[in-house]
Every structure is written in structure tokens, then in C-alpha cells.
What does this fold into?
Amino acid sequence: MDVRATLYNIDALAKTSILVEGPTDVLRIGSSCAAVIGLEFTNAQVYRIKERGVEKVSIVFDGEEKAVQRAIRLAKCLDMIGVKAEVVRLPDGMDPGSLSDSDAADLRKECGVV
It folds into this structure.
């Protein structure tokens, strides 16, 4: 299977989930989190999110502007197929994988992921 057709940690997705860029971000964020593996995403990945039964997703990419713009594009694609998507903006230069334990827990709570 082409890696661009699936998501890292796809089996952990729940009705309310978080999407990040890479595996180290998933490891830091924890439960109900998957990665698109980079800033680019495919239609196959978008549809797999829907197929997994995700109803609401928070997209948490790195804080730089290019990543934020990609997250906004992904959110629009998900919204078009019925998955409510929001972009959570981190400060410029911040990476979800570098969050402290308490900041990662706060992020999960803010996104509605227990």
C-alpha cells in the first residue's frame, strides 16, 4: 500500500480526533491522533478519515505559515465531505512534537479529545 494513501496511527482515530504532520507529533499528542506524514495530503487520506467515522477533527500542524496554510486547505477538504474540521494554530516555529506533557494534555482537552 502506498504510504500516501493512509495515515500514521489511523487505527487510533475516533469520532473526535487530532491530525498532525508526523509520527513524532502523534507520539507526543497521544490518544485519537494520526499523522498525514508531512504537509502534503492526498484525497485518499481525506476519504480514509471519513471512512474511520471521524466526525470532528482538529488539525494541528507546525506553527509556520506554510504549515498553517496547508492545514486550512486540509480543513476545507474535510468540511466538503462532512467532517467538521478546525485548524489549531500554534505559535510560529512551534512543533506539536515539542510540546510539554501538560501542554499536550491541554491541547487534547481544547480539541475535545480525552
